[in-house]
Amino acid sequence: MALKVVALAGGVGGAKLADGLAGTLPAEALTVVVNTGDDFTHLGLRISPDLDTVVYTLAGMADPDHGWGRADETWRALETIGMLGGPTWFQLGDLDLGLHLFRTDALSAGQSLSEVTERVRQAFGVAVWVLPMTDDQVSTMVETDQGTMAFQDYFVRHQFEPRVRGFKFVGAGVAQPSPGVLAAIERADLVVICPSNPWVSIDPILAVPPIREALAEKVVVAVSPIIGGRALKGPAAKMCRELGWEPSATRVAEHYGQLLTGFVLDRQDINQKEDVAALGIHVEALQTVMKSKDDRVQLAEQLLTFTETIDLGVTP
């Protein structure tokens, strides 16, 4: 019988490993819980960047160059917006706009985000469950040397150039998990924290109290998004440095702390295995760079094999 797995994901790295797990496990055995702290309203449209990245990736529709957005995208609507003097800093492709229009209309009609996401999942032919972390509004705010700004302003408009001083997840403390999240965690044999940015992709999920509490008794294994002191994509290493720590896989493991049962770092960071093990965490070094679909599946398979050693009670 296949393990029942919950994957916590956000961003491109998280979507890739979720796709690898989907290629390894039976569809009914995998639930992907996705960060919604990045969600925002732009040009009157409700946009869920991480949910869309995960769905597009699982559907085989993601832009292979960017990792986000749709493959074979066109930009005629954005060109018109720019011609009229409207904001073009957040790039919305024509295919992508169709989803945002649908989501905004459905939410305005009273449907919940999880209901809308389920309709999108089915329409896009995604077999595994994809759940937003909450149907309530949670907003990731980035405290910087230029003031506090919404995540998309920091990440896209300002190209994550301001120096980070901290984060707030507005609304998380009173948010409730979306329907199905707690049940999926309860029945899961394993929770995988994907190689997403710990501070802005995973922490918003963990900031919803019932989710954090539900994970306390589970086998939780994280995959480091920092390899050789760098993030393959995005500002995770930069954030780590600006928060006062040297970017490393060990620092990611320390960040999650007692939540973790196991941790996977890249083979080029194998010299950090002892440091992670000293935290009381089972640790394995694997090839974690996912350049192809085969890489994603291979990492997922090896990750699941690693968890078997944890179940056998092998000491770190």
General description of the model:
The protein has helices at residues 11-22, 49-58, 76-83, 94-108, 113-123, 151-157, 181-187, 198-206, 209-215, 236-242, 249-256, 273-277, 293-311; strands spanning 5-9, 30-34, 40-42, 45-47, 129-132, 139-144, 147-150, 164-170, 190-193, 220-223, 226-227, 230-231, 262-266, 282-286. By secondary structure, the protein is of the alpha/beta class. The chain has a domain at 5-44 and 127-143 and 170-311: CofD-like domains (Rossmann fold). The strands form four sheets. The chain has a seven-stranded parallel β-sheet with strand order 5-2-1-9-10-13-14, sandwiched between helices. The chain is globular, with a radius of gyration of 19 Å.
Short description:
This protein is an alpha/beta fold. The protein has helices spanning 11-22, 49-58, 76-83, 94-108, 113-123, 151-157, 181-187, 198-206, 209-215, 236-242, 249-256, 273-277, 293-311; strands spanning 5-9, 30-34, 40-42, 45-47, 129-132, 139-144, 147-150, 164-170, 190-193, 220-223, 226-227, 230-231, 262-266, 282-286. Helices cover 40% and strands 19% of the residues.
